[in-house]
């Protein structure tokens, strides 16, 4: 992706967050220049990859497979000094965008429609070899539990949520003609390096073409503290 495309995506998400009345923590507004001056008192943000994020799953087609997100809080399964057992994210998808099919080995999460249009989440149980199971899926949504056939698409309108358990394959996209969506994610600790199992082998972070200065640094770009 071009840096100019990333900058625009982040600004679009900022506008959506504001429109939904959601307030971000101070570190989300740090400029690249400010980050170069931050000391070790901000290491929790660096070590746990808090802040702005962009994924195109390494496919180079952000407008179809990809979205913008912010990690607001997170623990760290690899560093004992970080004792939080939970994480929270915001995800922003425009119409036409989607998340690739995947499950998590360990993480359980709630995906919540925080505002905007409707989100469509497709679910499959996984077999032992990582294929799609043809067994029914038990859906847990806002205090209700019910069974659906494999591959069912669950629609979340604003305010609704679904619980995603480990080994439950899921992808999601915006329902056409309903507008962009701001999603919340409340989960166990997030570990993007080891805990994602994609149905088709893909990447995570985009390759960036620097055609203009960054508006915000992404969570994998922070300079080390001096």
Characterization of this structure:
Belongs to the D-lyxose ketol-isomerase family. One of its GO terms (molecular function) is metal ion binding. Its cofactor is Mn(2+). The structure is a single chain. This protein has 226 residues and is mostly beta strands. It has a domain of 146 residues: Jelly Rolls (Sandwich), CATH 2.60.120.10. The chain is 12% helix and 35% strand. It has 3 helices and 13 strands, in the order αααβββββββββββββ. Strands 1-2-3-12-5-10 form a 6-stranded antiparallel beta sheet, covered by helices on one side. Strands 9-6-11-4-13 form a 5-stranded antiparallel beta sheet, with no helix packed on it. A two-stranded antiparallel ribbon has the order 7-8. Strand 7 and strand 8 form a beta hairpin. The longest helix has 17 residues. It is globular, with a radius of gyration of 17 Å. The two termini are 30 Å apart. The model has no long low-confidence stretch (mean pLDDT 96).
Order of helices and strands: HHHEEEEEEEEEEEEE
pLDDT < 50 runs, ≥5 residues:
none
Strand percentage lies at: 25-35%
Mean residue pLDDT = 96
Per CATH, the class of the domain at 53-198 reads Mainly Beta
Distance between the termini: 30 Å
Return the structural class.
mainly beta
The value of Rg in angstroms is: 17 Å
Characterize the biggest β-sheet.
6 strands, antiparallel
CATH architecture of the domain at 53-198, by name, is: Sandwich
Q: In which order are the strands of the major sheet placed? A: 1-2-3-12-5-10
Name the helicity range. Answer: 10-25%
Fourth-level CATH superfamily of the domain at 53-198: Jelly Rolls
Please, how many helices? 3
Q: How many strands?
A: 13
